[in-house]
Amino acid sequence: MITTLAESTIQAMVTRDEFPAPRELSGRRVGYLYAEIVAWANARPRSTLLPPPNTGAKKPRHSRAQTGDG
Predict the structure, then answer these.
(1) What is the pLDDT of residues 32-47, one digit of tens each?
(2) Which of 25, 26, 33, 59 has the highest CB neighbour count under 10 A?
(3) How far apart are CA 35 and CA 2, in angstroms?
(4) CA–CA separation, 15 vs 31, rounded Å?
(5) Residue 25 CB: number of other CB atoms within 10 A?
(6) Phi and psi dihedrals of 56, rounded to 5?
């Protein structure tokens, strides 16, 4: 994973020319060049904020028995 941005956020940023545009791969398939994403990330300003404590935490999975479904 190169970025934790949501797909919708990336699409909006591409529209505003704030993120590298995808490249046409074939037909209706597009992809991003790794080098362009890395260059974009390296150009971003450093932050003085720390990530929130729950960054990257997986949500607990509930089984049907626990939720009462089933």
Answers:
(1) 999 999 999 999 999 8
(2) 33
(3) 11
(4) 15
(5) 9
(6) 85, -5
